[in-house]
Structures are given as structure tokens and as C-alpha cells.
Amino acid sequence: MSDDRRRFRRWCAVLAVPAFLFVLAACGGDDGRAEPSTEPVTQPADEGPAQIAALSSDAAEAVRTLVGAERLVAVPESTSNEHLGNHADEMAQVPNHVPSSANVDPEQVLSWDPDLVVVTARHDGEQDAGELLEQADVPLVTIENNWGSIEQLQDNYRTIGEALGAVDRADKLIAEMEADLAELADQLDGADEPSVLVLTNQASDPFIAGPGSMPTDIVRHAGGAPVVDGSEISRTMPAEPEQIVGLEPDAILLVDVLGRGEESFDGLLGNEAVAQLDAVENGRIMTLPGRSAMAAGGVHVVDGVRDVATWLHPGDGLEEGGA
Which of 123, 124, 199, 308 is deepest in the core (most CB within 10 A)? Predict the structure, then answer.
């Protein structure tokens, strides 16, 4: 029996205390602004893990930004989607790609010979694999929140940075994000907060982004009031015309994850009742690419905040970010 096969069977036989586990507690330019530098700092080969399998797109982007894509041995297929990520070309060069819709096979992960595996527990396939992988000789980082806010993203970068030996790099990125967000908050001080409905096209039909999602948190930082806050909607869910009409948003933000543009929302926005909403009749609708609105965009979510703020507050002298 091969050593790899023995190791895999040992994982399956023991489901007790993890050997090495980082757990994050759950609660997911020219204008002179400080732009977060997304160019990774390459570390010497003897500093930190060099064969990293990041099994979610948000974690993969974190690793790329912190230490470089050359240290990745496996990432999800979705990381090479230019509409979802900002470094699709680099991610396409990673040797192994995990189908986004498939459960993760622990034996396959083992075959990549990683010296660190990063999983996000909110994903069922990753969680199942993690329950086996945590008993391996390979260190495991488990992110237990849903990357659902800028604060959670920053916490996760710190956690992953610790595992990679890149704490200083993580702290620098977070400080740059905080400086940009603080500047924007000062500019928005005292401004009205229009109510905003966030819709995404992450599935075949549009979804309403729930209160614990990254796009909704972006709206909060951009000086908007998410209509789902305080509503009966507690999670991201398929969008129904009756719900949208009942929420009566002042504005509608469309998050384009699939690259299909505003047209992918036509069936919903063209509904007779929805079309009569002031936001639709007055054209107060914005489309934001997923790479600036989802956690897989990494530090570029700050660009998304500024873009949304500029749209919501057109007379306040704001400038768009880098989306």
C-alpha cells in the first residue's frame, strides 16, 4: 500500500482533535487616495508554506495577495472567471482546479502534496473534506465565517496571513483598506442614506442578497441603507417580485457574477409590478461586477464601496474606484 493511501485511510479512521487548526470564530490612484497594493510580496521558499491548496475562491485570492499565486497548487475553477476575480490569468496558471459545484475529494487534495490547506466551513463540500483533512499531517486553516463583510474579510486575511508567515503583509493591506474607508466615511458624513436592494445573478435566477452578505455590507459602507436590514429576509435567497415590491427600495444594485450584465435581470425587473417601483421607473439602477462586490475580489471590495458611494451620492464630489 502506498504512503499516500495509508495517510488517506488514517484520516478516515480518526475524527478527533485536529493536529494543526486555525479557526476563526463565526459571527461570511490619481486622486491621492491610498490604494491597497494587490501585488503580492514574494517570500523566500523557506518562509512559510510553499504548496498551498485553497479550496474556496475568497481564500485563494487571499493567498495570492499575501504571498503570490506561485505558491498555490490548487484553487477553485471560479477563480479564473474574470467577472468574479481580479487576477483570472494568474489563477488559470495554478496547476490544479477544483470544480466549483463539486464536493472536494480529500484523496485528490492529498495527491497535490500540499503543505497547507485552506477551507471555508460554510461550503458543505469543503466542510466534509475538512473533517477528514484536519487529521492529516498537512496543516489546515478553517475559515468558519462566511466572508460576509469587510470586517470578516480582514479577519480572515489576518488568520491566513498567520498561517503563511505573512502577518506584516496582511496588516499593511488592512491598514490601507481602513484608511480608504475612513476617508470615504468622512466624505459621506451627514449624507442621506437611500434604501438599496441588492440583487445578484450567481444562479440561473436572480437572488436577493441577505443582510449577512458582502454586497450588502458594501452598501452600508457606501452610505446606503440595505432594505433587507430589519426585514423578514435573513439570508440570501431567490428573488420574488412580491418581495421586491414590498421592500420599496430607493435604488437597486445589481451584482454581476456571471458577466451577463443587466440583461440577466430583465425578467425580474420587467415584471409589471416591479417595473412600477420608483427605482426602476427613474432608472436608479447600477450594475457592479462581482470582482468588486464579492469576497473573491479581496481588497478590491473597497473599490466597490467607492463605486457604489459615487452612484448613491452623485453630488458629493466622490470619485469611482478601480472596478
Answer: 308
Q: Which residue has the cell 495517510?
A: 7
Check: CB of residue 173 under 8 Å from CB of residue 157: yes
- Average of per-residue pLDDT across 4-14: 37
Cell of 280: 426602476
Amino acid letter at 147?
W
CATH code 3.40.50.1980 region(s) in the chain? 52-144, 190-312
- For 12-25, the pLDDT digits (tens) are 332 222 323 333 22
Query: 52-144 has which fold?
Result: Rossmann fold (3.40.50)
Report which secondary-structure segment, H or E, holds 266.
helix 266-269
pLDDT tens profile 264-279: 999 999 999 999 999 9
pTM: 0.83
d(CA 213, CA 215): 6
C-alpha cell at 35: 490604494
User: 322 or 257: which carries more pLDDT confidence?
Assistant: 257
* Region 190-312: CATH code: 3.40.50.1980
Give the DSSP H/E element, type plus range, for residue 175.
helix 167-188
213 vs 148: CA distance, rounded Å:
4
> CA–CA separation, 305 vs 317, rounded Å?
15
